[in-house]
Amino acid sequence: MAKLASTVQRPDAALIAALESANFHPLWDRYKRITPITPHAKDAPFLWRWRDLEPLTARAAAEVPIDDVERRAMILANPAFGGATVTTSNLIAAFTVLEPGDHAVPHRHTAAAIRFSTRAEGAVTIVNGRKLAMRPGDLILTPPLCWHGHINQSDHRTIWFDAANMPLINTLDASFFEPGRRDDVEFWKMDEGDESGYRHPGEVTRRRLDAAPPGADATRTVRYVDPLTGGSVMPTLDCYAVRLARGAESRRKRTTHNAVCLVVEGEGRSTIGEQSFEWSRHDVFTVPHWTWASHQARSGDADLFVVTDRAVYERLELLREELG
Fold this sequence. Notes:
Elements: H1 13-21, H2 27-34, E1 47-48, H3 50-63, E2 73-75, E3 92-98, E4 103-109, E5 113-119, E6 123-127, E7 130-133, E8 139-142, E9 148-152, E10 158-164, H4 166-171, E11 177-179, E12 199-200, H5 202-211, E13 220-223, E14 238-244, E15 253-255, E16 259-265, E17 268-272, E18 275-279, E19 284-287, E20 293-297, E21 302-308, H6 310-315, E22 321-323
Antiparallel strand pairs: 1-19, 2-3, 3-10, 4-9, 4-11, 5-8, 5-10, 6-7, 6-9, 8-12, 13-14, 14-21, 15-22, 16-19, 16-21, 17-18, 17-20
């Protein structure tokens, strides 16, 4: 027998209706909605495989003339966000491809962005007039409102990994963008001066990883830091190099910040929330906030590049980290 729907009306129903009609909400009726007990990520972890993307980079290079677009980049779009251009909360990640001789038009924006050189030998990024080579494993910074553009000076296709916090900036409705000109002769005049604030060489990072003491789970971690402050590499982006030891599983962890992980070298497996992923070189996966995650290298050591919004949560005093 079907259960009859309750017809009992709550005693404050008329008051709530009167409040709502006057554009007020009663806190006693809404507090659970506006003060969740714990964070709850909109997205589940997601994995993008390089083997799926690589042929698409070739198609983009062949079919999309660089002079017709702002950037020839393919953004990793997480379907959990319903078609929005988001990789995980607050962050986007992408791969950019340049053909020999391509010049990517200069521009600047309020979002903070990074480039990590995967297959970019021969490409150059110009940031505020600084010429920054893109050698294997290099991290290139484009801080907010810095003019930047790219050139492929080689005789082969170049590809690199990008990440930026456009979703965060757009949520705050604080985005400003200023396009440049392809024929801006002054921009393309490059300075060979100090690059310490813009480029972290891959060879230095690899040496630091070699020398870093392993943790109790045998994982080695190196934080990229601002040479002037010793803190996060930019005020709203915090980046790490992580080396997983063969066969050793990293300790389970969850945190209020979000992360995008690029597999630099090696292969392995991650358990994130209720899902497990097998990954290999140049695959990318996300670790959404407040989601338990652990990682394990398989056939040998594995190196990850990890870009996060940890610095934002730290500055807002919202950072919380737990170990399992």
